Amino acid sequence: MKAFFLSCWLSLLGCREPPTSTAELSIASPEYLVLAQKALTCQADFDTLAWAGLLAERVEYQLAGQAPGWRGKAAVLAGWKHWQHRAGIQTIRLSGLTHLPVQTLHPLPLMGRAGVYVVSYCLAHVRYADGHQTSRPIHLCYHFDADKRIDAGWLFMPDPAQDTLLLTINNH
Fold first, then answer.
1. In the chain, what are the domain boundaries?
2. Which candidate among 76, 85, 106, 129 keeps its CA 20 to 30 Å from the CA of 15?
3. Cα 158 to Cα 73, 132, 139, 140, distances in angstroms
4. pLDDT 10s digits, 123-159
5. Which fold does the domain 24-156 belong to in CATH?
6. How far is the C-alpha of 112 from the C-alpha of 14, rounded, in Å?
C-alpha cells in the first residue's frame, strides 16, 4: 500500500509514469521526519537561528509565485525574514501536519534531485500585524543532502481566493 501511495505521489509530482518497481523508491528513515518537523517549526516561528542549524551552506529555497528563489544559507534566512515583514505576518501556527519521507534513486523531473525528500502538508493559521487572520494550506518539500542537512526546499501555497495552485518549478 505504501508503494502504491508513493508511486501516485511521485507520478503527480514529477508529471511522469509511476516508477516500474518499488526498488526505485522507498520510505526514507523516520529520522528525516524529525528533521523536517524541526525545520518546519523553525520556519513557522521565524526562528532563523535554529533553522540555520538544519540548512546546508549551499541550500536553495523557492517560494511558489516568487522568482527567483534564494541561494545560499545567508540568502535563504534573510529572504525568509524579509518575506515575513513584507507580507506583514505576525505569527504562523501550524495544524494537521502530515509528512511523507521518500528515498528515490533517480532525480525527480520536477525537482531534479535524487535522494531523500520529505513532503509535508499542513494548515497554516496566519495572524497579520494588522490583526486579521486567515488559514491556508501549505505544501512543503525539503530535500536532504548526505549530511542530513536541507539543501533544497520548495513551498507551495494554494491561493484561497482562487481555484488555482501557485507552482514554481525549480530545475537544476
1. 24-156
2. 76
3. 26, 19, 8, 11
4. 999 999 999 999 999 999 999 999 999 999 999 887 6
5. Nuclear Transport Factor 2; Chain: A, (3.10.450)
6. 9
